[in-house]
Design brief:
heterodimer; A: mainly alpha; 13 helices; B: mainly alpha; 14 helices; globular
C-alpha cells in the first residue's frame, strides 16, 4: 500500500525514481573514472606542444594539433613496435590455442593413468612467479640466439599462459555431451578423427576466449619484453613507450600521442570482444 | 564397417576392452586407445612445460648457491648459502620486501571491497550494460607500464591534472609532488593499481553472484529479511569460494609488481617504490649479480608459494567442498 503525498506522488514511486537515479549515477561515475585517463591522454596528445606544460591546465585544447603525433612517429618507430607486439601476441595466442586444446581435450575427455599428476604439473606452474624463470631463460635465450627474436618471447609467454589455456579448454570440453563423440565413433571415425572433425570445430568459443585473453597478456607483458628485446627495432609497444626519451625535456606531448596510438587498438578490441573476455576470466569461478 | 561395435565399446566408458583389429592396423588408421591418444596429445604440452617452466626454476634454485656470471657460462663456484646471507643482510632487500608487502596487502583488500560494490551494481541488467562493462574493464586491459606512464603524467608535480583538479575543488592550495615524497609515492602507486584492477575483481565476483540461486533471496524476502541481512547471510557466505579465487588471482600478480614502479617512478624516490621484483631485476641485470639475483628470485618464489598455499588451504576447507 503506498502513501499519497500532495495527492499526486506516492512515496513508493518517488523512492523508485530516487533509486534509479542513484543507480545510473553510480554507473556513470564508474565509467567516468575508468575512462578519464584515456580522455586526458587524448587531450594532452592534441595540445600545442607549448600548451602541454601549462598550469592551471586547459581541459580542452586551445588549438588542436597533430604535431605531437608527427614528432612521435618521426622520433621512434612506434608502428614497428605495434607490429612487433602484434606478431608476438598473435604467435603466443596461436601456440596456446593449439596446445591448450589438445591438453584440455585429453584431461577432460580421455581416461589414462597419471591424469592427476599431469593436471597438477600443468596447473601448478600457474602459481609460480615469472621472475623465478627469468634468469635461466635469459641465459638459454642468449645461448640459443633467441634474444631479440619473436620466438624468444613467444616461447616463454606461451608456456606461462598454457595453464590458463588448458583450464579454459578442459572446462569447456567437460560440458560437451558424450553423445557427440559416440556418434562420431559409431560413424566409423577414429579417435583422432572425432577430435579433429567433431570436437575441435565445436570448440570455437573456447578458442576465441583463450586467444583473446592470451593475446592481451602477451600484449601487456613487460618484464620479459624489456629483458629479452634489447635492440630498438625488436621492442614491443609497451617497452617502446616505457623507454621513449625525447631529445631535450621529458616529452609528455609526444608520449601521450604514442600512448594514445597504442590504446586505440585496445579499446576497439575490448569493445568487440568484451563478452569473450568476461567469459574467459570467469570460467569456472562461478561454480562453488 | 565390421569393427564399429568395437569402437563404440572402446569409447571413454570402457577403456580396457581389447580392439579386434591389430595394433599395427590401429596405428596406421590412427585408431589409438585412449591411453595412447592422451600420451600423444599431452607429450608436447608436458615436455614444453618441463623445458620452459620447470627446468628454469630448478636452475634458478641451483644458481642461487653459486657465484659467477650465469650469462657467460663461466665455471661457477659453489658458495653454499652465502648469496642468501648477503641478501638477507642487505637493507635494500628488506626495504623492497616491505614495499611489496604493503603494496600487495593494502591494494588487494581495497580492490576486493570496491570490486564487490561494482559487482553488486553490475549484477542488475540495464540498457547499455555491455558497453559499460567494456568501459570499466578497459583499465584492466591497459598494459601496466603504459598505465604507469599515463598516471605519472596525471600525478605530475607541476603540470599534473590531479593537482589541477584538487586545487580547483579547493582541497589543495598549491601543487603537490605526489611522486617525489616517499610515502605518498607508494600510496599513489597503490591507488593506481586499485584503479586498474578493481573492475577485474568485479567481473570475477559477478560470475560468482550469478551462481547464487534466486529462490534463496525470494524465500528470505518472504520472511521479511532486510537487504543487509540478505547480503550478510546469503550473498557473502555463498560468494566465499569466488572471493578466494579473486584474491588468488590478484595477490600473486600484485606481489610480482614490476612494470608499474618501473614506469611510474623507476623505484624512487630513493627506494620508496622498489618492489621485490624490481629490486631483483636491478640486482641481476644492472649489477650483474646473478647468484644473488637467483637467490632473490628463489625467495620470491617461496613467498608466492606460501601465499598460494594459504589461499588454497582456505579454499578447500571441508565446509566448501
Amino acid at each position: 500500500m503506498s502513501t499519497k503525498i500532495f495527492g499526486a506522488f506516492d512515496v513508493d514511486s518517488l523512492q523508485r525514481v530516487g533509486e534509479k537515479l542513484g543507480f545510473y549515477g553510480s554507473i556513470g561515475v564508474l565509467v567516468a573514472i575508468s575512462m578519464f585517463p584515456v580522455f586526458w591522454i587524448f587531450i594532452t596528445s592534441i595540445k600545442q606542444p607549448s600548451n602541454v606544460v601549462q598550469f592551471p591546465v586547459y581541459y580542452l585544447p586551445q588549438q588542436p594539433t597533430l604535431e605531437n603525433y608527427r614528432v612521435a612517429l618521426e622520433q621512434a618507430p612506434f608502428m614497428r613496435y605495434l607490429l612487433n607486439s602484434i606478431i608476438v601476441a598473435g604467435g603466443t595466442a596461436i601456440v596456446d590455442v593449439v596446445l591448450g586444446a589438445l591438453a584440455g581435450y585429453s584431461l577432460s575427455r580421455l581416461r589414462f593413468r597419471f591424469k592427476l599428476p599431469v593436471l597438477l604439473l600443468i596447473l601448478g606452474t600457474a602459481m609460480l612467479p615469472f621472475i623465478s624463470r627469468l634468469i635461466p631463460l635469459f641465459s638459454l635465450a642468449r645461448s640459443w640466439g633467441l634474444l631479440n627474436s619473436y620466438l624468444g618471447l613467444i616461447i616463454p609467454y606461451a608456456a606461462f599462459q598454457l595453464p590458463f589455456a588448458v583450464w579454459i579448454f578442459q572446462a569447456y570440453f567437460k560440458e560437451l555431451p558424450d553423445s557427440l563423440e559416440e556418434a562420431g565413433l559409431m560413424d566409423g571415425l577414429s579417435r583422432i578423427g572425432v577430435l579433429f572433425r567433431i570436437i575441435l570445430p565445436v570448440s570455437a568459443p573456447a578458442m576465441a576466449t583463450t586467444a583473446i585473453i592470451v593475446f592481451i597478456y602477451a600484449w601487456n607483458e613487460f618484464l620479459f619484453a624489456l629483458t629479452f628485446m634489447t635492440e630498438d627495432s625488436m621492442r614491443t609497444i609497451t617497452v617502446g613507450i616505457a623507454l621513449y626519451q625525447g631529445e631535450y625535456q621529458y616529452p609528455w606531448g609526444t608520449i601521450s600521442a604514442a600512448v594514445f596510438l597504442s590504446i586505440v587498438p585496445l579499446m576497439l578490441f575490448m569493445l568487440f570482444f568484451q563478452r569473450r573476455v568476461v567469459e574467459g576470466l570467469t570460467a569456472g569461478t562461478g561454480k562453488a | 564397417m565390421p569393427d564399429t561395435a568395437d569402437h563404440v565399446s572402446s569409447s571413454r566408458h570402457d577403456g580396457e576392452s581389447t580392439p579386434a583389429v591389430s595394433r599395427w592396423q590401429r596405428y596406421r588408421e590412427f585408431r589409438l586407445t585412449e591411453e595412447e591418444l592422451a600420451t600423444a596429445l599431452l607429450a608436447p604440452v608436458v615436455l614444453f612445460l618441463l623445458a620452459v617452466s620447470f627446468y628454469p626454476i630448478i636452475e634458478t634454485v641451483r644458481s642461487s648457491f653459486y657465484t659467477g656470471y650465469v650469462i657467460e657460462a663461466r665455471p661457477q663456484t659453489f658458495v653454499g648459502l652465502q648469496n642468501y646471507e648477503q641478501l638477507l643482510s642487505n637493507g635494500g632487500f628488506w626495504n623492497s620486501f616491505t614495499v611489496s608487502m604493503i603494496y600487495t596487502f593494502v591494494s588487494v583488500p581495497i580492490e576486493l571491497c570496491i570490486g564487490l560494490g561494482m559487482a553488486l551494481l553490475l549484477q542488475r541488467s540495464f540498457r547499455g550494460k555491455y558497453i559499460t562493462q567494456a568501459a570499466i574493464l578497459f583499465p584492466w586491459a591497459l598494459p601496466t607500464v603504459i598505465n604507469a606512464k599515463i598516471w605519472a603524467w596525471m600525478f605530475h608535480g607541476q603540470y599534473g591534472v590531479i593537482n589541477d583538479m584538487l586545487i580547483r575543488i579547493g582541497i589543495f592550495e598549491t601543487t603537490f609532488p605526489f611522486l617525489a615524497k616517499p610515502n605518498v609515492a607508494l600510496a599513489s602507486m597503490t591507488f593506481i593499481t586499485i584503479w586498474k584492477t578493481s573492475s577485474f575483481m568485479a567481473l570475477i565476483l559477478l560470475a560468482g553472484l550469478s551462481g547464487i540461486p534466486d529462490h534463496l533471496y525470494e524465500a528470505a524476502r518472504m520472511d521479511g529479511a532486510s537487504r543487509w541481512r540478505l547480503f550478510r547471510d546469503i550473498t557473502l557466505p555463498l560468494l566465499k569460494p569466488t572471493i578466494l579465487v579473486a584474491l588468488i588471482f590478484r595477490t600473486l600478480p600484485a606481489f610480482q609488481a614490476f612494470g608499474l614502479p618501473y614506469g611510474l617512478t623507476g623505484g624512487g624516490p630513493g627506494e620508496a617504490t622498489t618492489t621485490l621484483v624490481l629490486f631483483d631485476h636491478q640486482l641481476t641485470f644492472t649489477q650483474l649479480a646473478f647468484g644473488r639475483g637467483s637467490a632473490a628470485a628463489t625467495i620470491i618464489t617461496l613467498i608466492a608459494l606460501v601465499i598460494s598455499l594459504v589461499y588454497v588451504g582456505t579454499l578447500y576447507e571441508p565446509e566448501v567442498r
